Amino acid sequence: MGLALGSVVKLTRDISMPIFGIGTAGAKGDPCVAAVREALRVGYRLIDTASMYGNEREVGIAIRESGIPRDKIFVTTKIATPEQGARSTPKALQESLRHLGLDYVDLYLIHWPSRRKRLATWEAMIPLVDRGMARSIGVSNFMVHHLEELRPVDETPAVNQIELSPFLQQDEVVGYCREHGIQLEAYSPLTRGRRLNDPVIGRIAAKYGKTPAQVLLRWSLQRGFIAIPKSARPARIRENAEVFDFALAASDVRALDGLEKGLHFDWDPSRVP
Q1: pTM of whole model > 0.90?
Q2: Structural domains of the chain in order of their starting residue, each with its CATH number
Q3: Count of H helices and E strands in the chain?
Q4: Which of 44, 53, 108, 176 is catalytic?
Q5: What DSSP line would sit under 119-164, residue for residue?
Q6: Is 104 a catalytic residue?
Q7: pLDDT in tens, 117-128
Q8: Beta bridge partners of 227
């Protein structure tokens, strides 16, 4: 099968990133602390947060309470659209680090391709790596035309975090990222739970003795995507991680590929010029 919970991929600047983590969008307060703490206990080593989630403080508390050395945990956060810009970007990361209680993040992403500020923001993020505030930088929700705008800058995004599932495979931007060495990270890989009753997924889940959610996560991993399912429920956090003891047959991957419908369960950034 070749994959394990601790497996990593290489980013630009020779940074290693875990292929599996926990998303924290929507988690707040003590439940967020408990969820991240449980994920770390189970073996997750990638934690995804963002300024706009309003939970960086809770994520930082869970990291410290885990007792796991900081350099063993890969922390991602993101700059929100109102914070973007040449002068405000460094201040935004400083504020995120203050909330997290950390000296650096492992990955800093532009959360959304702001129409007027995305290029200036990207240029402002590069020195943050040199200053040791971020080990790597990337983008989220960037389509091909957004990525092309960054091409003249002498720094390729390490990661593009986009919505990916069998129902939204985004072949154009996926192909572009593969061609340019940009790792793909799948958010909402479980379709926000809205397609877990699909009969194709159900049939495949029954074949392997797995849940529909586990089948979707395994599809993401076998497609070469970094997966960050979100959950605040300890049992579901553990269940989501139990996807490394089986592999989907090629015929089942093709069956899941056949579910493509262009369905967004979150934002649709393709509409941003």
Answers
A1: yes
A2: 8-194+219-234 (3.20.20.100)
A3: 10, 10
A4: 53
A5: HHHHHHHHHHHHTTSBS-EEEES--HHHHHHHTTSS---SEEEEE-
A6: no
A7: 999 999 999 999
A8: 20, 186
